[in-house]
């Protein structure tokens, strides 16, 4: 169970993907890495993708997860992660694949597709069976209530399961046998590695760029055990949580400044106004 | 607010504050939602949260459950039924995406068709269709025949293509997710938009030429009244044949007409990246069956909405404003 619980630690250092040299953003696609970071390193990031289960809404978002530049930088500085130019890596690695490797990728995907189709068929059959069962019980209970005045209601009540299965399985089991092997579905994988080979770890990984003052603030608060999510919609840099925001309200909003930087009073008042409105400390 | 105890205000979040996208959401509600959702899933209200750690097992286990729910929700794979699979082909050499056999509602408002009946997709459209699990995008090359692009590969190849930044894409998807039809706006094709934002669609009542009788009637009765005198009633006593002429006299302050293009102060200030086309005109039969001026009101309402959205878009280039 622990493996499926999302406790699996990724191989360190793990790659953080910069889509291409044109896009200076750091993305994570592997849900295991994301959950692990959240639980063990207080790194939240921001989900930016669409959830395929419920795509027409903006409340629950899905993969990929974008790391704030400060988060990405912190991970690289701690030696937990390294940045990878995703486009270059894909192009190079795909070009280096020979036909047998491609063939095996294809076979893997085919197997996954069959797996998905089988699972679906199974759950469908289960649903049908349960629906039939419900139908049967309902009709039975109406029948039994109708025949409540009959001489031996007790005996009937004792054997609902038997009556149910005496009738039903015959058509159903023949149906299950007659169903052919399902057509394989196709799956869009979320991550590229595997099947591609892991991106090479550079000897001196490039540090993600971030403003010095905001990075210092982030690193300090992170060191104190806080969780930070972007605070731009409250007029600040970070909203700071005492624990995982899934469970905890944020305590305060934070904004960074250089040592001798003049602080605009309007920024303070603005941030304070937002924070007050949302019951946050300043 | 000042006389209320600070601590109590912190501890008691206002339950009437309902903007769900303001807070990180508890994915436990999503799992409850997706199990029961068959036709129209409604979004859950936010859950109760705690102020700080109090070291109880209950708190820890609730947090665990939330994290697990999030993990599970995000692990759901994008699968495609072979029966109605929309297969896209991506050509890495020139960065084009085509759907050879377009079907389904999503493809109706996207892409550009060509003579062979294929649909050419822009990078943002292709990426969005993959992300929402609608399209199965595969490599269009002989060696990689039939192999799909992963979500990651699609992001790597399509972002940055044709100047599509992650900011632009985030705005695009958030509009698409709440159901708008979104097309590229003036920022992409500046030469096509040398005038203003979108050319406002003429309202039906303006474009429709009046019939002979109506013109005759108007020439008889709709004579413009002289400007009202500096003092005295706005509507001078007299003969009025229609309400419109009275309304015209009553309007002292010129109103905002959302169908007009916004005034251009500095045209180069913030080019608008996305345009939301107004809804298609109401068919004549439908308009006839609706009583009164209902159809026109609908159209102007939509136009107003469109205008608001475009203002919002121009104000919020900063992407995080748009995000949950």
From TrEMBL, chain A:
EC code: 4.6.1.16
Region (Disordered): 142-166
Residue ranges occupied by any TSEN34 N-terminal domain in the UniProt entry: 23-86
Transmembrane segments: none
CDD domains associated with the record: tRNA-intron_lyase_C (cd22363)
Record family assignment: Belongs to the tRNA-intron endonuclease family.
Protein's job: Constitutes one of the two catalytic subunit of the tRNA-splicing endonuclease complex, a complex responsible for identification and cleavage of the splice sites in pre-tRNA. It cleaves pre-tRNA at the 5'- and 3'-splice sites to release the intron. The products are an intron and two tRNA half-molecules bearing 2',3'-cyclic phosphate and 5'-OH termini. There are no conserved sequences at the splice sites, but the intron is invariably located at the same site in the gene, placing the splice sites an invariant distance from the constant structural features of the tRNA body.
Protein name: tRNA-splicing endonuclease subunit Sen34
Organism listed in the record: Lepraria finkii
Automatic annotation (TrEMBL), chain B:
Entry coiled-coil feature ranges: none
Organism domain of life: Eukaryota
Biased composition (Polar residues): 32-41
Keywords (A to Z) from UniProt: tRNA processing
Biased composition (Basic and acidic residues): 45-55
Location of the region described as Disordered in the Swiss-Prot/TrEMBL record: 1-58
Boundaries of every tRNA-splicing endonuclease subunit Sen54 N-terminal domain copy: 71-139
InterPro entries: tRNA_splic_suSen54, tRNA_splic_suSen54_N
Cross-referenced PANTHER family: TRNA-SPLICING ENDONUCLEASE SUBUNIT SEN54
Family: Belongs to the SEN54 family.
Annotated protein name in UniProt: tRNA-splicing endonuclease subunit Sen54 N-terminal domain-containing protein
């Amino acid at each position: 169970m622990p493996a499926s619980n999302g406790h699996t630690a990724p191989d360190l250092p793990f790659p953080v993907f910069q889509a291409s040299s044109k896009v200076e953003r750091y993305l994570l696609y592997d849900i295991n890495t994301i959950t692990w970071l959240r639980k063990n390193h207080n790194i939240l990031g921001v989900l930016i993708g669409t959830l395929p289960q419920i795509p027409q809404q903006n409340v629950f978002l899905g993969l990929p997860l974008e790391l704030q530049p400060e988060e990405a930088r912190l991970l690289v500085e701690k030696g937990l992660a390294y940045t990878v130019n995703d486009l270059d890596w894909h192009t190079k690695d795909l070009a280096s694949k020979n036909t047998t490797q491609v063939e095996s990728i294809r076979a893997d995907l085919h197997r996954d597709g069959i797996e998905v189709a089988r699972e679906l068929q199974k759950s469908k059959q289960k649903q049908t069976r349960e629906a039939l069962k419900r139908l049967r019980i309902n009709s039975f209970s109406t029948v039994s209530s109708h025949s409540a005045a009959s001489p031996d209601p007790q005996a009937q009540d004792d054997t609902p399961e038997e009556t149910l299965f005496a009738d039903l399985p015959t058509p159903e089991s023949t149906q299950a046998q007659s169903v052919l092997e399902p057509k394989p579905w196709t799956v869009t994988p979320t991550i590229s590695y595997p099947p591609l080979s892991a991106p090479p770890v550079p000897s001196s990984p490039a540090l993600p760029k971030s403003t010095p003052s905001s990075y210092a603030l982030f690193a300090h608060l992170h060191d104190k055990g806080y969780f930070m999510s972007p605070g731009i919609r409250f007029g600040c840099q970070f909203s700071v949580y005492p624990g995982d925001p899934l469970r905890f309200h944020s305590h305060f909003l934070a904004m960074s400044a250089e040592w001798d930087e003049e602080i605009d009073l309007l920024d303070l008042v603005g941030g304070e106004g937002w924070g007050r409105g949302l019951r946050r400390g300043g | 607010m000042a006389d209320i105890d600070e601590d109590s205000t912190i501890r008691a979040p206002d339950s009437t504050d309902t903007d769900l996208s303001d807070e990180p959401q508890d994915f436990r509600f999503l799992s409850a939602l997706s199990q029961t959702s068959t036709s129209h899933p409604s979004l859950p209200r936010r859950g109760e949260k705690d102020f700080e750690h109090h070291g109880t097992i209950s708190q820890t286990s609730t947090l665990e459950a939330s994290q697990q729910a999030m993990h599970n929700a995000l692990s759901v794979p994008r699968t495609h039924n072979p029966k109605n699979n929309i297969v896209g082909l991506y050509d890495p050499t020139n960065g084009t995406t085509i759907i050879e056999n377009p079907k389904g509602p999503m493809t109706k408002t996207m892409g550009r068709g060509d003579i062979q009946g294929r649909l050419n997709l822009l990078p943002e459209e292709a990426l969005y269709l993959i992300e929402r699990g609608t399209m199965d995008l595969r490599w269009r090359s002989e060696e990689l025949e039939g192999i799909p692009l992963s979500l990651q590969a699609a992001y790597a190849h399509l972002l940055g293509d044709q100047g599509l930044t992650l900011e632009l894409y985030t705005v695009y998807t958030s509009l698409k997710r709440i159901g708008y039809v979104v097309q590229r706006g003036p920022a992409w094709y500046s030469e096509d938009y040398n005038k203003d934002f979108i050319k406002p669609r003429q309202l039906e009542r303006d474009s429709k030429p009046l019939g002979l009788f109506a013109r005759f009637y108007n020439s008889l009765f709709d004579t413009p009244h002289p400007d009202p005198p500096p003092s005295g009633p706005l509507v001078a006593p007299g003969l009025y044949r229609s309400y419109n002429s009275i309304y015209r006299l009553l309007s002292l302050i010129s109103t905002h007409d959302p169908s007009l293009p916004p005034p251009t102060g500095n045209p180069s200030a913030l080019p608008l990246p996305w345009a939301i086309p107004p809804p298609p005109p109401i068919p004549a039969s439908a308009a006839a069956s609706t009583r009164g001026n209902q159809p026109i009101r609908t159209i102007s309402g939509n136009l107003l909405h469109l205008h608001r959205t475009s203002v919002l878009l121009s104000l919020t280039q900063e992407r995080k404003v748009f995000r949950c």
